[in-house]
Request: fold
Amino acid sequence: MRIVLSGGGTGGHVYPALAIAEQCLKEHPKAEFLYIGTQSGLEKTIVAKSGLPIRFESIEITGFRRKLSMENLKTVMRFLAGVRRSKQLIKQFKPDVVIGTGGYVCGPVVYAAAKLNIPTMVHEQNVLPGLTNRFLSRYATCIAVSFKGSESKFPKAKRVVFTGNPRATTVAQADASKGRATLGLLPNAPLVIIVGGSRGAKAINNVMVDIVPLLPRLPNAHFVCITGEAQFEATLKRIQTESNGQLDHYHVVPYIHNMPEVLAAASLIVNRAGASFLAEITALGIPSILIPSPYVTNNHQEVNARWLEREKAAEVVLEKDLTADSLFDLIEKIVQDPIRSDYMSKQSKRMGNPKAAQLFVQEMKNLLRKL
Reply:
């Protein structure tokens, strides 16, 4: 079995693709993969560090601006060039199927495959689909969605199925003891993770600094703050100044590559509301405080977050209302209330779909058999 994967821009688009590859290798150990991404996105680094036998090739592509501009004309030209380059790579690799997991990079790749009459699958992580996947739904052989009810968002698709997010399967199998060992934590200490997504978020990093004086209110809890590579140095310096260098229970890191294992050890997590991330926390049943990004298309992160909030699995704080005091009050109430924390955990796990990767790969195999 030969499979082309494409998706990028953020880890939320890359990790589901890798989860699909992991599941394929479990079922077909001789499967071969080609990943088509960009040189500038996170996908190149994440794929290289995954340890999976995946060859990586790149195309040059950018996303569309939301208003009319000459840059959009350049984007159209890059798209056409990306289609030509993708066709070359696909013809050389000769895949059985091409899979796109979101982000503008998968646009020319899946489109090229469709024009070459190669079976294609697109995975949509969000409740509200993105521009690229809406465009591809007219050409793809099959669309797989993460949220029940999202099927109706693709009225022009040939086939739409619910599978859940494949990333959930990877995370559900993670070893919490390895996550604690990575951070040097005691077995039973409450662990609160604060993270602003794979690239970090300035507003959340600012709160990481501002809550330092409040930490004595939870003396037994450990905090892991993940800033993103670009903002790490500046955020760490501010935190060190605020804490006078006393950071025994406050771990500040730019990125964590074994995130599933660290997540498995978490008692509570504070984060944006990207769909792949929600698949991870529901697979593990982690209570969460979600701060949806206000800078995404169609405000889809708030739509994602409200999905968990309605089921009492998460608390939602809008960025415009975010302060250190309000956030720490919520953290404190959840960490110190085992009944509330346990209920949130059960509700979160009830919404998870740890077999999502198996369902996606099964759909892929059914598709190939029919064709």
